[in-house]
Amino acid sequence: MQELEKIWxxxxxxxxKEAKVHVLTHALHYGTAIFEGIRCYKTNSGPAVFRLxxxxxxxxxxxxxxxxxxxxxxxxxxxxxxDTIKANKLEECYIRPIVFRGYGExxxxxxxxxxxxxxxxxxxxxxxGEKGIKEGIRAKISSYTRTYVNSGSPRxxxxxxxxxxxxxxxxxxDLGYDEAILLDINGFVSEGSGENIFYVKDGVIFTxxxxxxxxxxxxxxxxxxxxxxxxxxxxxxxxxxDLYLADEAFFTGTAAEITPIIEVDGRTIGTGKRGEITRLxxxxxxxxxxxxxxxxxxxxxxx
Length: 303
Ligand SMILES: Cc1ncc(COP(=O)(O)O)c(C=O)c1O
Hints:
Helix content is 28%, strand content 30%. A hairpin with a 2-residue loop joins strand 15 (257-264) and strand 16 (267-268). It has helices spanning 26-30, 52-66, 74-87, 129-135, 161-174, 217-228, 240-244, 276-289, and strands at 6-9, 12-15, 33-35, 38-43, 46-50, 93-101, 115-122, 137-145, 179-183, 189-192, 196-201, 204-208, 233-236, 248-253, 257-264, 267-268, 300-302. The chain contains 8 helices and 17 strands. It folds into 2 domains: 6-122, D-amino Acid Aminotransferase, Chain A, domain 1; 129-289, D-amino Acid Aminotransferase, subunit A, domain 2 (D-amino Acid Aminotransferase, Chain A, domain 2). The strands form 2 sheets. Strands 8, 9, 10, 11, 12, 13, 14, 15 and 16 form a 9-stranded mixed beta sheet that branches. Strands 1, 2, 3, 4, 5, 6, 7 and 17 form an 8-stranded antiparallel beta sheet that branches. It has 303 residues and is of the alpha+beta class. Pyridoxal-5'-phosphate (PLP) binds at residues 37, 165, 191, 194-196, 214, 216-219, 252-254.
């Protein structure tokens, strides 16, 4: 990882190398952390953070679900994010606010441990490569079931949920695929290890119902863009067969942006190339993120 200059810890910008926690930090042992992944894009009028208020809203929703009181207001975190980007002199970056149970008493009950808050930023290009964005990637249905609402709350972006994601990702890569697709506890398609999923059939766009997924900001962005372009989008139950027989499929996520899926479990999706609807959605999405779509200006927080 390329080191930058500063990381924000509990309100202070500290040198990158000194941004450390105690080895007995509760979250390190028990996964008691919630976080966000946000992107800042370069626009003609300087750097702009994409859908910052929506990401902060989801952070506070995650905190509410796991009963962790964030010791800062959304306005303070917004300022912390902007200060951190500026302190690192970045025009484009990935932003990682994380809120976690810190150093206190050991044991599963976190209530005696304080809540710490960190904001880090780094340079991060296309998550699955520029080639992945243009030519698509190959995915595998995972042998791991997605964490479900009564076992870990997929709606909350908790660190603990990412062991499930990590196991699925490593399995998919070991088997020669780029990404995993997890099914929910009832066997319906839920999401990728760090992305939501969509497919296109006969001109209609489908995406899994919100029950067993993280409600992605990029998912919402794509739904809004597609509907504004006059396309029909259905949130529904999806099966692996739906994916196998789709004309197009793609992942969405802050890291993955919009990444076409050209193969699932050895079955070619559509023509085996990025589909036309996927390409159009990518085009509008990137234009919106880079401040080139006046209709979506309100999604940008300019520095
Ligand atoms: C499991 C999972 N689903 C979906 C997403 C997509 O969410 P967003 O578009 O808000 O980044 C992510 C990424 O944060 C994720 O980790």
